[in-house]
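Entry for the shared binder. Reason: the reviewer on the internal report wants the predicted structure included alongside the sequence.
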Amino acid sequence: MAEISLSTLDIIIIIGYFLIIIAIGIYVSKRTNTGEDLFLAGRTLGWGVIGFSLFASNISSTTLIGLSGDAYRTGISVANYEWMAAIVLILMAVFFIPYYIKSSITTIPEFLENRFDVRSRKYFSVITIFLSIVIDTAGGLYAGALVVQVFFPEVDIWYTIIGLGLFAGLYTAAGGLKAVVYTDVLQAVILLTGSTILTILMFGNFDYSWAAVKETVSGDHLSMIRPLDDEALPWLGTLIGVPVLGFYYWATNQYIVQRVLGSKDIKNARWGAMLGGALKVGALFIMIIPGVMAISVFPGLDDPDMVYPTMVANMLPVGITGLVLAGLISAILSSIDSTLNSSSTLITMDFIEPKNPNLTNKEIGKIGRWTTIVLMVIAVLWAPNIVHFEGIFRYIQQAFSYIVPPVVAIFFMGILWERGSRHAAFWTLVIGHSVSFLIFLLSIFGIFELHFTINAGLLTAFSFLVFYLISIFGEAPEQGSMDTIIWKPKDALPSEPMPWYKDYRFHSILILLATAAMVIGFW
């Protein structure tokens, strides 16, 4: 990546941002006393905080740079992951949020124990913790260090990783989820502001004419729905694979859903999901299309990762560059602090607390803080080693497509089908992941070469079948034992009477209409 020089004003803005983050951490830590405070912000979060935090935690440094880079390399089909997220958040609001909030669960794996048994809970919890620390946290630290080196190339990558890890780990351990989501709001505003300004300036190179953009960019690059043999994202993968990945990420991933679990009530949880979905729809225009515009503005870039830094270096005026850099660092910290807090929650509540039921709330909070610090150390130690396993790490990123399918199957079948059994859930995870691992190995050696999103869809269908067959031919749950868990149409209704314009179903329709218009317009 090209080196970017910073003015004094830019540096002042960056320092000011960090001072604000520290102040938030100190303020919140003084009011964080119990485990529920640490892990779920005392269940006091409103819809605005939830929505912005969902968006900020998702837009990590790799995502922010990766969206522009993929758009530069292959076109806007990468936006399918973004608008699909909005649809998935609507599904979560309809089917899962009622149970998540009414049951007052602390971790997503708790749902699996309440619906099935402790085996499925601990199985899924271990998978989530491993992926969160080794992939999400360590990957965020490593990618963040690379981004910081663009601006400060003289700083060794080790020092950058340690600095990012310590900063995110300590204020997460001190303030917990409330500190995380409050800083997320600030981060989301910075990301949205900086990306919008950059988009406007990039569009200015075309005299603010969309027709001029279309004349200078290949038609394929401006098409979301791509041919079946498309290397980036075939239409079949968009149809059957992207929804599976999206559902896992937005509806069952602890570090994302934890914001929803911390809401003050069902209506705020749903409104927050709607705000997050609306923000994801807008990602096409402020984070992806600028990458397409860069094809003609900055032609010939060999490394797609250079697209976003190149736009920052050449398009933004003094002061705004510092703001955008603060936004990049914000995105890095948002992902790191979110995964640390969620992993600490899982270890404490799924493994430590069940074996020590007499722990007080303060003791649970203390354990959670120390767990966060230990996990931060593990991620910091592992992150620099990713440079030695670049190919493997790339495959690991795609491995989400192989890990997700059985999880999606048991969550959907668990909440929609009362006949689903506890043995079916556990063995669907075991069998599904065994088959997924086999296909993953075959894909590495070029024997099974379907696009990974298509693999995700097919493996999900297989997992549904396994769950169904084991449930049908095995023992049935006790009749009526699932009445409080199985979804019923009345659960989709608002939790209390309210005007139509406050009804999340009305918000859902607006989001779906906006999504449909966008997909049709960029088909």
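Summary line for the report: Residues 390-395 have pLDDT under 50 and may be disordered.
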